[in-house]
């Protein structure tokens, strides 16, 4: 059940997202969807000198999908792709209920979404931004490998 | 003689197992009264054998139970004969049966199939697939924003090429009752068959296939107090007679050789393999329940509760009810949006208060595209709901915007 699901952190990021806008300086973008519920976002990152210098998302969906993407961008902007991927791994373990208290602290505000682990139907909503990030980083990595080989 | 006690939630054991549950997802599936559960159990305890096959007393009993259910269905919807009643798994399978069996024999390239734009995917995909396979065209009949279909629009949409028109008697999104009798008349003047999806109507209003003059009617038992896994296809005998079998296997043949087979008579031609006798017995018990309660009492109660919910919902700012302005046109189905709140968040907040409603596109994506909304929330009630359920629903609905962080 959704007790305390919609806490202030979540509703605030949903109604007043910091990172929901177009990003003209983006160096890479990735589309992510949850076909069964219609959540639909595009994640944009500006990668420069091995750092995620800026990021944004656009799209539509439930409060959990939108707030989660906004919180994610708060956490990963200014970090390296490797660090971002580490947060992703922690977040995915958190929403499936397999995380330690220390790890939870690392996630800062994203820890507010921990209670979603108790509501399996909404895990995919919370995971959308992060899954999209994973797909984006993977595509980027493959691109780099191709460049290295050539 | 009407039995008032049957209207009560007390007859539904799920509410003992799940006390405090406000169940408002009846269009998806209804809860089952004790009488239905007991009938199914009694069949398996006392009458179970493979129906239609065995040459011994118990199998004869099983056959009688199964065929007795068919007779009950025949009477319930006013069919002419048992030969017109095919047991399937559900309304979706019934509609697929028409598309595969009648459709593949009768639809040719450039023929047209007309489908109401508000149709459930079950009454849309089988026609899309059929049309694609045959090179036929799918056309959509549009409704007004409140879900109303006009006879004039239907007349205009029909062409000499229109072979079939598919429409629900009651839409699972609008809850509006379509004038099927009138539409059947218009279709038949044009030489077009009419397929009626009765999944949302048969549980809530008396349906008489001969009075409506529909060619096919499909419905599911589980949306009308009965078990899951048993549904009905009604078809006019002269149409079913000419149709090839849908599935093949045991009990649908007359005679089989190494080279081929001749098929069994109606209705068994369409019921390959071991049948769902327990399900059919449960459906019969559901029909008995409704008959004993009477449609008059059932409709009166559902209408009362719909009006109560509708009028309260209209008072809440930012809540929009989709469809007709008159609650009597909703038949227990109230589809709505809350401005600024995604339907999945609406459903999650209701769930946190132990209230079950549906959110999403209700298997009617083309309709949502037509209405220009991505998804909606839906509460759907049945006669066994009560005023307390409606009060709880309305009270939570009124708190949603605040819970989602909107001030005021």
CATH class of the largest domain in chain B: Alpha Beta
Largest beta-sheet characterization of chain B: 7 strands, mixed
Which consecutive residue ranges of chain B, at least 5 long each, have pLDDT under 50? none
Average pLDDT level of chain B: 94
- How far apart the termini of chain A lie comes to 53 Å
Overall pLDDT of chain A: 91
| Number of continuous helical runs of chain A | 5
The CATH architecture classification of chain A is: Alpha-Beta Complex
User: How are the strands ordered across the major sheet of chain A?
Assistant: 1-2-3
Rg of chain B to the nearest angstrom? 22 Å
What is the string of helix and strand elements of chain A?
HEEEHHHH
Strand content of chain A: 15-25%
Examine the secondary-structure arrangement and name the CATH architecture of the largest domain in chain B: 3-Layer(aba) Sandwich
Whole-number count of domains of chain A: 1
Low-confidence stretches of chain A: none
Distance between the termini of chain B: 52 Å
The succession of helices and strands of chain B, N to C, reads HEHHEHEHEHEHEHEEHEEHHEEHEEHEH
């Amino acid at each position: 059940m959704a007790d305390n699901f919609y806490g202030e952190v979540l509703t605030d990021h949903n109604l007043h997202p910091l990172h929901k806008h177009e990003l003209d300086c983006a160096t890479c973008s990735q589309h992510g969807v949850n076909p069964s519920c219609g959540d639909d976002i595009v994640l944009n990152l500006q990668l420069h000198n091995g750092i995620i210098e800026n990021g944004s998302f656009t799209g539509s969906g439930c409060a959990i999908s939108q707030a989660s993407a906004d919180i994610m961008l708060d956490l990963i902007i200014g970090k390296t792709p490797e660090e971002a991927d580490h947060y992703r791994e922690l977040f995915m373990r958190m929403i499936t209920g397999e995380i330690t208290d220390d790890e939870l602290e690392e996630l800062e505000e994203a820890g507010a979404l921990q209670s979603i682990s108790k509501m399996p139907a909404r895990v995919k909503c919370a995971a959308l931004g992060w899954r999209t990030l994973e797909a984006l980083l993977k595509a980027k990595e493959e691109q780099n490998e191709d460049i290295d080989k050539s | 003689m009407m039995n008032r006690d049957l209207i009560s939630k007390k007859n539904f054991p799920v509410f003992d197992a799940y006390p405090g549950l406000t169940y408002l997802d009846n269009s998806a599936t209804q809860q089952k009264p004790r009488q239905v559960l007991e009938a199914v159990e009694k069949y398996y305890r006392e009458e179970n054998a493979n129906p239609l096959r065995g040459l011994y007393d118990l199998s004869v009993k099983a056959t009688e139970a199964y065929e007795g259910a068919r007779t009950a269905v025949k009477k319930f919807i006013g069919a002419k004969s048992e030969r017109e009643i095919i047991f399937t798994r559900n309304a979706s399978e019934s509609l697929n049966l028409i598309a595969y069996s009648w459709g593949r024999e009768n639809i040719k390239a450039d023929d047209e199939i007309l489908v109401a734009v508000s149709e459930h995917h079950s009454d849309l995909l089988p026609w899309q697939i059929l049309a694609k396979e045959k090179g036929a065209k799918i056309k959509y009949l549009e409704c007004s924003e409140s879900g109303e279909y006009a006879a004039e629009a239907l007349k205009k949409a029909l062409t000499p090429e229109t072979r079939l028109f598919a429409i629900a008697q009651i839409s699972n999104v609008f809850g509006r009752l379509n004038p099927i009798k009138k539409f059947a008349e218009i279709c038949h003047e044009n030489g077009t068959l009419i397929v009626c999806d009765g999944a949302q109507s048969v549980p809530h209003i008396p349906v008489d296939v001969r009075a409506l003059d529909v060619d096919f009617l499909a419905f599911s038992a589980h949306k009308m107090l009965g078990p899951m896994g048993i549904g009905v296809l009604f078809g006019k005998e002269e149409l079913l007679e000419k149709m090839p079998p849908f599935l093949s296997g045991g009990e649908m043949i007359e005679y089989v050789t190494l080279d081929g087979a001749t098929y069994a008579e109606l209705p068994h031609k369409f019921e390959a393999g071991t049948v769902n006798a327990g399900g059919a017995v449960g459906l019969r018990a559901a029909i008995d329940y409704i008959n004993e309660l009477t449609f008059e009492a059932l409709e009166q109660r559902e209408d009362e509760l719909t009006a109560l919910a509708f009028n309260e919902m209209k008072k809440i700012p930012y809540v929009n009810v989709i469809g007709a302005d008159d609650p009597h046109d909703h038949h227990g189905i109230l589809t709505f949006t809350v401005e600024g709140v995604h339907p999945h968040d609406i459903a999650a907040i209701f769930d946190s208060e132990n209230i079950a409603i549906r959110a999403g596109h209700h298997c009617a994506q083309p309709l949502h595209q037509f209405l220009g909304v991505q998804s909606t929330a839906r509460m759907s009630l049945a006669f066994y709901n009560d005023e307390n359920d409606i009060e709880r629903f309305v009270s939570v609905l009124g708190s949603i915007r605040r819970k989602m962080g909107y001030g005021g």
